[in-house]
Design goal:
Distance between the termini: 30 Å
Order of helices and strands: EEEEHEEEEEEHEHEHEEHEHEHEHE
CATH topology of the largest domain: Metallo-beta-lactamase, Chain A
CATH architecture of the largest domain: 4-Layer Sandwich
Number of helices: 8
Strand content: 15-25%
CATH class of the largest domain: Alpha Beta
Radius of gyration: 20 Å
């Protein structure tokens, strides 16, 4: 990438993609905290990502914001920028940069499976692909989300006397679990930790159906037996979760496929539901793009680089700092 450096700095227009520190010009792929930082002078992003940043960091978290619609080409000097849906969370995008006929696509975080809480992933042909690899090992083969939700619903039937507390990240995962439950016919009230409230409200304002949800209030005496309660993973590990009577602790994450991780997190009911591409999605997309060069930003980089080399594709690990593939904040 002659005109883009290893820190994802588009040199001709002095613009960084998902910079870890404040910069003059930033393109933000989505609202998770390891990609969207406050303090930039100028931010280019989707309307949803900008609004999510303002919810999380305040109205003045950047000096200037510019919205770019999906599939709309923006010319900045000699470089063209186009956003395509990444399918990761609401507002998430891939960033296609074009200069003198060369196309470089930055996936950001993505998944190709269907998700009613965000725009469906849209594949893009390019000369160079800059990809994530959070689950870039052959062992990661995500099951169908519907099967994981069935596990949860069966547990509710088997243990109607126990609350089910599910660890979910506040942005994206919480709303997706709510949506999946509604899609499979669960129409009861679902309780949420207070830290999830603002973003759930934002999704609802964007016409994403989450059903009846209520912010939990533990000062009121209420029987939560047989109820579903969503909370951030940090809450289920501290005294907050111990206020419930004999809860079943669950967590929804791609990492739940690793039994030792579930055990360390004291998770009784692991749900393997991820907002990232698994091994097959990653390698299938690399093949689809017909990219001659692949750069891996973060995650299980070595395995993807090795696979690319075996398939006669030039590949290099960038090992970007500041990317948190353990938690989506």
């Amino acid at each position: 990438m002659k005109w883009i450096d290893k820190n994802l700095h588009i040199i001709p227009i002095n613009t960084h993609i998902d910079p870890f520190k404040p910069v003059e010009n930033a393109i933000i792929t989505h609202g998770h905290a390891d990609h969207a930082k406050p303090g930039h002078k100028n931010v280019l992003a989707t309307k949803e990502t900008i609004e999510i940043m303002k919810i999380r960091y305040g109205e003045n978290c950047a000096e200037n914001f510019q919205e770019l619609q999906l599939n709309e080409k923006l010319k900045i000097d000699e470089v063209s920028i186009t956003f395509f849906p990444a399918g990761h969370i609401l507002g998430s995008v891939q960033v296609l940069a074009e200069l003198k006929g060369e196309k470089i696509n930055f996936t950001g975080d993505y998944k190709t499976s269907k998700d009613k809480t965000c725009k469906q992933f849209e594949p893009v042909k390019c000369n160079t692909l800059v990809t994530e690899a959070t689950f870039g090992l052959p062992v990661f083969q995500h099951p169908k989300e519907s099967l994981e939700i069935e596990k949860l619903l069966r547990s509710l039937e088997l243990f109607p006397e126990r609350p089910h507390i599910i660890g979910v990240y506040a942005l994206g995962k919480a709303q997706r679990i709510l949506s999946l439950l509604r899609q499979q016919g669960y129409d009861k009230e679902i309780f949420i930790h207070g830290s999830l409230d603002k973003l759930c409200n934002y999704y609802q304002k964007n016409h994403i159906f989450l059903g009846k949800i209520s912010k939990i209030n533990l000062t009121h005496k209420k029987n939560f037996n047989g109820s579903i309660i969503l909370a951030p993973p940090s809450a289920i590990k501290n005294v907050w979760a111990r206020k419930f009577d004999d809860p079943i602790i669950s967590q929804a994450s791609g990492w739940m496929s690793i039994k030792q991780r579930a055990k360390q997190s004291l998770v009784e009911l692991p749900l393997i539901i991820s907002d990232h591409a698994d091994w097959n999605e990653l390698t299938d997309y690399i093949k689809y793009t017909e990219a001659e060069n692949v750069y891996v930003t973060h995650g299980r980089e070595d395995a993807i680089v090795h696979w690319c080399n075996q398939n006669k594709i030039q590949a290099l690990a960038l090992s970007l700092s500041g990317r948190d593939d353990e938690n989506e904040l």
